[in-house]
Design a protein that fits this description.
200 residues, alpha/beta, Spore Coat Polysaccharide Biosynthesis Protein SpsA, Chain A, two-stranded parallel sheet
């Protein structure tokens, strides 16, 4: 039985999702949710065809990506006590959740170290009940930005402690692919290796 759900969202990032979703699905004791946020690549259809065990949440009619709305849609779809949010361009190592799970404790939320790694800034683990308690992400925020900081501060305001540290490293090779939903440049697929895994 799953105790954690990995939630990721996709709008014009199917090239990333093709690389990362298999690793997410392979995490032991985890369920997965993919939010198809009006993805022009048809990411929801691709997921349904290639990973039928993954739950697809569709948010139609959107022309601009909103991290808060996409992640809140995914949060509403899960049933497990813990949730791990990952961007579509984060490729977790096979040991990621197994390394983190024994360290999880109520009263805390978990982020990667180092905390200044902007490529993994939105990757974190928390109890679903704690996220629901603070109302999830503030949907006033658009695109990528301070929605993560706002949520972390909300969790700390209600008494949760942030936890972040390193685990022994495991090398992977990032790749670069175009991002159709970004208004500027392409992003590099990041690896949530054991060296950047969230721990307590």
């Amino acid at each position: 039985m799953s105790d954690m759900t990995i939630v990721t969202a996709c709008m014009g990032r199917l090239a990333y999702l093709r690389q990362s979703l298999g690793r997410m699905v392979a995490q032991p004791g985890c369920s997965c949710v993919v939010v198809d946020y009006s993805c022009p690549d048809g990411s929801g259809d691709w997921v349904a065809a290639h990973h039928p065990a993954v739950r697809v949440v569709r948010v139609p009619g959107q022309t601009r990506f909103s991290v808060p709305r996409a992640r809140n849609a995914g949060l509403r779809a899960i049933e497990t006590p813990w949730v791990c949010f990952c961007d579509a361009d984060v490729v977790p190592e096979s040991s990621f959740i197994d390394a983190v799970r024994p360290l999880l404790r109520p009263g805390s939320y978990y982020r990667p170290a180092p905390l200044d790694d902007t490529g993994l800034y939105g990757t974190f683990i928390a109890l679903r009940a704690d996220l629901e308690r603070v109302g999830g992400y503030d949907e006033v925020y658009q695109g990528w930005g301070d929605e993560d900081v706002d949520l972390y501060r909300a969790l700390e305001f209600v008494g949760l402690s942030p936890r972040a540290s390193r685990l022994p490293s495991s090398a992977t090779s990032p790749t670069t692919t175009p991002c159709a939903c970004c208004s500027t440049t392409s992003r590099t697929t990041r690896s949530a290796t054991a060296s950047t895994a969230v721990t307590g």
